[in-house]
Amino acid sequence: MKTFRSDLHIHTCLSPCADWDMSPKGIVSECIKKDIDLIAICDHNTTQNSLAVMNAAKKSKIQVLPGFEICSKEEVHILAIFDDIEIANNMQDYIYENLKGKNIPEIFGYQVISNMNDEVEGENERFLLGAVNKSINEIAERVQALKGLCIPSHIDRKVYGLISQLGYIPENLKIDAVEMVANVMDLKYSSSLSNYKIVKSSDAHYKKDIGRRLTLFTMESPEISEIKKALIGIDGRGMELI
After folding, report:
1. Exposed/middle/buried for residue 145 (C-beta within 10 Å: 0-12, 13-18, 19+)
2. DSSP string over 39-91
3. CA 57, CA 55: separation in Å to the nearest integer?
4. 137-147 residue pLDDT tens
5. For the segment 81-137, what is each residue's pLDDT rounded down to a tens digit?
6. In whole angstroms, what is the distance from residue 190 CA to residue 3 CA?
7. Taking the model in full, what pTM does it have?
8. Which residue(s) pair with 122 in the sheet?
9. Domain 2-241 CATH class label
10. Which of 10, 85, 104, 105 lies at a C-alpha separation of 20 to 30 Å from 242?
11. In the chain, where are the structural domains located?
């Protein structure tokens, strides 16, 4: 078993609300500096920069999982994380089929597609900050069908969180955990979350924020199946919030 210092919610320069310094090489170097072992790239409604970060990290100890921060039609943000880019691309096709609108960079920000060497390869013209025309239940079911990790984002925030948007967590929602980004859990959330596993991650849009919240996973390897075991504490796996 190994303990992985993990940040499962990092944006790149492809997210229009993220800093341009969030390039593949920039993210990897910051993770090395902060002794982070495992990250997930979760840009808004796209995984188009995930492979570039995965390739940039190949000569380092950093393990990179491809993922998304999906915005449901209820405007709830959900992390969807996968083992490999092919499965993530399958999910991306599903998202793009249900995402309408075109980005206006002067208003919403530029959506920069980068390669592993931090060279600009183009821009994504879709409105990545928009809502996908699928419910949280439909998105969660699709993620689980693809054997991904499904985690509602920043559940302790007043905007785009599951509780802030709906007022509750649906009992039949197929999620693996919920994410918190604050140091201390607000008391008003404590009873709502008593039946759910909690992970902490940074939701980093700027390099300085990478690793500001971490989850330690004790497991054999940095794979989705292992993370799922660590979340429920079976077969010697486990987790700790720091």
Report:
1. exposed
2. EEEEEETB-TTHHHHHHHTTTSS-EEEEEEEEE-TT--EEEEE-SSHHHHHHH
3. 5
4. 999 999 999 99
5. 999 999 999 999 999 999 999 999 999 999 999 999 999 999 999 999 999 999 999
6. 27
7. 0.95
8. 113
9. alpha beta
10. 85
11. 2-241
